[in-house]
Amino acid sequence: MDRGIGSAAVEGDALGDFRIVSEPYFRPVGNEVALFEAAFASRMPVMLKGPTGCGKTRFVDHMAWRLGRPLITVSCHEDMTASDLVGRYMLDADGTVWHDGPLTLAVRSGAICYLDEIVEARQDTTVVIHSLTDDRRILPLEKKNEVLKAHPDFHLVISYNPGYQSVLKDLKESTKQRFVAIAFSYPEEAVETEIVANEAGVDRPLAQTLVRIGHRARNLKGHGLEEGASTRMLINAGLLARRGIPIDEACEVALVLPITDDPDMRDALKSAVAACI
Ligand SMILES: Nc1ncnc2c1ncn2[C@@H]1O[C@H](COP(=O)(O)OP(=O)(O)OP(=O)(O)O)[C@@H](O)[C@H]1O
Ligand SMILES: [Mg+2]
């Protein structure tokens, strides 16, 4: 076997899994598409900031498709180590073989690497991105004694949920200051109605009712609710309603019960639902 051709084919196949072939639906809310394109053109690392379920992940999927780059997504968690990102030697039948981690694969191949919920990772893990996110654009593979120069198309995106993290769970200043930030929030009524109608496959009047419920629920944030109802929750309620679940029940299971265990807050949310339908 020609090993060169063989390994090239394997690499191509591996990246094929990360290519987004059909357009992910994304309804722009502001100037986020142009901002991302400009940042990508300068290979400036991007941080997406915003509450849960407001479209950050969908936006990255859409941008990867739009820019024609493969997308490698890593969900960060507190047990994640630098080796989980960079790679490690593993034992197989032929001895020890190096396996690229997802970050290294993206750096080598020119993919977009999306580190989702980066604050969940420990700070000593996140510093591995420092040399990639300044003008060096290199990734030291210490265990391999190799310094990898990033592919010209490599691009790093992280997401960050302001409000959830404590002082202990925050990015280092030196990490934050390497990124440009695009702020996400729940869109205004007409735009969110369009998104809910499209994603849940429900008619506009129903989508609008759900969005109004969402607005009322968001007003309770800070008055006993940690987070208001996300766009994702409104879509879930719509999907249930489309399958014949009565709207009040759909709202109860999709957006009242999941966000609070406090009986008074549940009553307040149920009243908000009742007032809108
Ligand atoms: N602007 C938008 N255009 C299209 N769909 C959207 C948009 N905003 C939100 N959605 C819908 O809301 C859902 C939730 O969005 P997404 O998963 O991108 O949220 P997120 O911000 O990544 O949340 P988390 O921080 O919890 O990961 C998506 O699956 C999509 O259906
Ligand atoms: Mg997400």
UniProtKB/TrEMBL annotation:
Gene Ontology molecular function: ATP binding; ATP hydrolysis activity
UniProtKB keywords: ATP-binding, Nucleotide-binding
Domain CbbQ/NirQ/NorQ C-terminal stretches: 192-275
Domain ATPase dynein-related AAA residue range list: 45-179
Entry superkingdom: Bacteria
InterPro entries in UniProt: ATPase_dyneun-rel_AAA, CbbQ/NirQ/NorQ/GpvN, CbbQ_C, P-loop_NTPase
Family label: Belongs to the CbbQ/NirQ/NorQ/GpvN family.
PANTHER family, sorted: DENITRIFICATION REGULATORY PROTEIN NIRQ, MOXR FAMILY PROTEIN
Protein name (database record): Protein CbbQ
Source species of the chain: Mesorhizobium plurifarium
Gene (UniProt): cbbQ
